[in-house]
Amino acid sequence: MMNDFMENGIFKISECRKIAVMGGTFNPIHYGHLVAAEAVRAEFGIERVLFIPTGRPPHKALSVVAPDEQRYLMTVLATAANPYFDVSRMEIDRKGTTYTIDTLRELKKICRPDAQIYFITGADAVNEIFTWREADKLLDMANFVAVTRPGYDKKRLEKNNSMYYLEIPALAISSTDIRDRVKAGKTIKYLLPESVEEYIIKFGLYKNDVAGELVRKIKERLSSVLTNKRYIHTLSTAREAAKLANIFGEDTSKAYIAGLLHDCAKDFSHKLRIEKCKEYNIYLDEVLKKQPDLIHSFLGGAVAEFEYGINDREILDAVKYHTTGRSNMTKLEKIIYLADLIEPERREFDGMKEIKNAAYSDLDYAMLLSLEGTIRVNRERGRLIHPLSIEAYNYYKSK
Ligand SMILES: [Fe+2]
Ligand SMILES: [Fe+2]
């Protein structure tokens, strides 16, 4: 019997009293996810399970994450045969960083007011959830079900009464392992639905991870030539750059790589800097001679090219001009310049908040604020200001 409340004999989301949400990157979705969702459905008498593939999170914004659309389609394929399963585009279609609280709020709007929501999540993600800003609100809005693979140490999970735990043997399967297997040319049969396996083969997903490989190599080298503090700043700048790139429609991989490399020459000794400037034909003007700290930026561009094998001009220029700026900068140059200043690991300075706020909405205005600040501070400290910075300041002031 069918009526308005039903689709194929199953309650519509808007009519359900008990809904489960299964969030994840699903990169790719596999039997572990499906078994977990089905187990929670049966255990709690859930009427519908809504799979919500996440938008591309900024820190994972490299080619190792299949494009949103492909992850969404694989999730649709994998869940098609189960009438209780649905897929939502909610997070894929939302621009910018995705927060669970926003997803729950959006879901509340389409659900009955008395509907109970069960949020299914991996055990590792649970610990993170409780460090979030609105953790209390989250717990008011949904029940959380932590699914773990067998043998997962429950002590690692924070003790909490509003949390359910469910051990799912199939969660021994992992997306990372599946990607590694594809890359190594090994079989992935029986780890995920056949339709998803065919999709991965048809579109050649996970075979080439050029950007991921490059990032691994760059990180390995940087961690050995930079001080620990600088390395942390570097990772944070790269993440911030990818975040800005995501907001402004710039290539997130390029931004991440440029962010990683921006200070690659910063911890060279003065002697080594001078030697390398000779080697790479970098002319030391009067300002650079008196303000040797500025050298790392120009030298960094050459080091990124010749020692890290980067041949993308935009990345190299973003590294080169990250300290002085220049007039008419490319989007990527502005992103790196600003990410370096506003990354969350950097100690708060005067005007940082204003620059940060501006950076998320208007790169040019954020540049103007930063350059203004830099010029003012350098003047106060009696330091020389590089002509490129003055040029840049005048340029962004007149925009
Ligand atoms: Fe720098
Ligand atoms: Fe820096």
What does this molecule look like?
- By secondary structure, the chain is an alpha/beta fold.
- The chain folds into two domains: 6-173, 3-Layer(aba) Sandwich (Rossmann fold); 210-397, Orthogonal Bundle (Hypothetical protein af1432).
- 51% of the residues lie in helices and 10% in strands.
- It has helices at residues 31-44, 68-79, 90-93, 100-110, 123-129, 135-141, 175-183, 194-202, 210-225, 228-248, 252-261, 270-279, 286-290, 295-306, 313-320, 331-342, 352-359, 363-380, 387-397; strands at residues 6-7, 10-11, 18-24, 48-53, 85-87, 116-122, 143-148, 163-167.
- Helix 10 packs antiparallel against helix 11 (252-261).
- The chain starts with 5 loop residues before the first strand and ends with a helix.
- The model is unreliable at 58-63 (pLDDT under 50).
Short summary:
By secondary structure, this protein is an alpha/beta fold. The protein contains 19 helices and eight strands.
Average per-residue pLDDT, rounded, comes to: 88
Helix content class? 40-55%
SSE order: EEEHEHEHHEHHEEHHHHHHHHHHHHH
CATH topology of the largest domain: Hypothetical protein af1432
Gyration radius over CA: 25 Å
* Outline: elongated
Query: Strand percentage, roughly?
Result: 5-15%
Distance between the termini: 65 Å
Name the ligand types: fe (ii) ion
* Protein structure class: alpha/beta
CATH architecture of the largest domain: Orthogonal Bundle
Number of discrete domains:
2
CATH superfamily of the largest domain, by name, is Hypothetical protein af1432
Low-confidence runs (pLDDT<50, min 5 residues)?
58-63
Separate helix tally: 19
Spatial order of the strands forming the largest sheet: 5-4-3-6-7-8
Number of E strands: 8
Largest sheet composition: 6 strands, parallel
